[in-house]
Amino acid sequence: MNYFEIKEALSSVEEIQNDEFEILKFITSLTNNVSTHSQGRDLVIRSLANLEVFSEMGQQLLKNLIRVTGLHPYSAKFLPKGDFEDRLAFEMHSSLIADQVVTLHSEQSKVLNLLLTGANVVFSAPTSVGKSLIVDAFVSQKKPRKAVIIVPTIALIDETRRRFLRKFGDVCKVITHPTQYAQPDLCNLYVLTQERVLERDDLDDVEFFVLDEFYKLNLPSGKKDRDRAVDLNLAFSRLARTGAQFYLLGPNIQSINGIASYDYCFIQTDFATVAVDIKNFNLATNGSARKEKLVALCANFADPTIIYCQSPNKAAEVANYLIEELSLSDAPDTKDAANWIAKEYHEEWVVHQAIKKGIGVHHGGVPRSLQQYFIQLFNDRKIQFLVCTSTIIEGVNTVAKNVVIYDRRQSNNLVDHFTYKNISGRAGRMNEYFVGNVYVLEEAPAEKEYSVDIVVEDQPDGTPLSLLLDLPEERLSSKSKEKIYQVQSDSILSMETIRENRHVSPEVQNWIAGVISEDLFLYEDILNWKGVPKQKQLEALAVLIFDYLSESTLRYYGIFSGRQLAWHLNELRSDKTLSAYVRTCIANKGHDEEVSDVIERALRFIRNVVCHRLPKEIKVIEVIQAEVLTRHKVECGDYSKYCEQLKHLFIPTNLFALDEYGIPLQTAARLEEFIGQPESLDKALSLVSKMTVSKLDFMPFEVDLIRSLQSLMLDQAEFD
């Protein structure tokens, strides 16, 4: 017998009953051999999936194998009949988290013990191995006065915040927003993206920080996400330089380079708590074979299933195809959500049509509150299918038996082995789905090792100028200093301006400064506005942004001139609500455009451009015009108020922030009538938590979301 034969036998009740002794004998031999220990552990997990089929003697042998393979969380069911050694192993790997005793597996215990000794740890392990639980155990035992958890997305901020509030809400303050501050007499847990880390000035005394998904420190070869990787390098360096202890965690990474100046332990493991069966179909990209196979698979699935697609457009196509071919009935648990989406957006939007039938759609164009809601429905098994893009692989916890990899691309690029492994790691869940299934419809990518190179310390050739510009001179290498001196000598702008706009190349900044200087008579009157711009002022600003900063990006969203950009911004301001703006976009759609496509483009434009990119680019113009106009003895403009309005979609700042807590922006805007404009997010949360919510004022879906937030806030002490 070999590993593959035993693996096959463990899926058959009859074979287990007939060959139990031989099966367990072979598994024992694998676990006792270092080179085959991982295979032995995999077979132990598969055996646990059919535990009731084994005889009492067989179950006792499996109990011992659980201990040998370090799968201690699975020991709980054997404790009533366990001997002293079983109980001792269980207790030695148990940790008190809040008021609950949680059992850790051997790798979790190893990492936690290192952290408790004060060591810096870099931990690379497969997806869903429980890397974040180590953070909870550390916080529970050490209770640091100030700790920072850096996560890549707002969705992960929300998930981490909910987890912390549930476990530590009575002893810790969880800080996620710029208007929130530490409480001196408590354990303060900052949960921030790298951008928010760099914006804060109160992190010099951090004791401990975590960097989740640390593979994102790698600088991508293309421009996409490069700025975020630069900021992540800077955030890591800024916190590490304080002397704070760090814990870097991420999946499937074989090596890390660039932090030799720090003492740390690198732990890389293939330890897994679930087994995974991968089925490759090698179907052609073109044609109908993939669609037909997808429908055939989904028709036979009874358990939660994630379907990975390369892009939002492909996700919409797949969702529509499933609706048409699976003959699904309306889902009773999603009726209120579907009604709300139809009212606030449109009944033809694929997200509405899908959730009405029990299919969640999860990608960057879906509003954040709906993404969170769909994940919750999926994990609560109220919907069976979740059609998603790469947004699902960035750490958000899901509970799925099956993963279907429909595309082997991410956007327009082929999925590499690293991303493929991360997607595959979503299949299976400890104590729920012992064996997960991954169905790869196209050809799987070739296996390849993945390393992380952190450039902020060593500053090798090719280190982005935007990173170097943020470092003090004493931190720069001799080559980096030469680059900075060259920029300084070539620039008509001051280094203060160049640094403040570091994510825009010095060449572009100088072009913009030259344009303003050469036509000063025009620009001195049209750029020196303060507060909110008039039409001509907005158009001039929009033209500069379109021509010099964002033409290719804006064309992607169907905007082909600065004046057209100004029109969209005016519509957003004059329409007053997000829903009204979407309806305006639908009313102005082309004859051959689908309503669903128009909605998704509008929502991506709002999220990626209006609320994120555009305020930064307006700030670039503001800083440049301030230097140029001041140099010519002309009063300069101040665009800060308008930037804030755009960033928060003309909704009061601390109501807009409720979007991160699962409250849709439309609902958040309506809350102003009941709680006014709170001076801080903490105040807004406190006021919402005390509200009496009526279905006379809000739709049933909104009532459920507000009450869910109120329930969450019961775990958090009030900080007014």
From TrEMBL:
Domain Helicase C-terminal: 290-471
Keyword Zinc annotated: no
Key word Repressor present: no
Protein name: DEAD/DEAH box helicase
One function term, GO molecular function aspect: hydrolase activity
Pfam family, any one: DEAD
Naturally occurring in which organism (per UniProt): Yoonia ponticola
Keywords, comma-separated and alphabetical: ATP-binding, Helicase, Hydrolase, Nucleotide-binding
Segments forming domain Helicase ATP-binding: 112-237
SMART domains recorded: DEXDc, HELICc
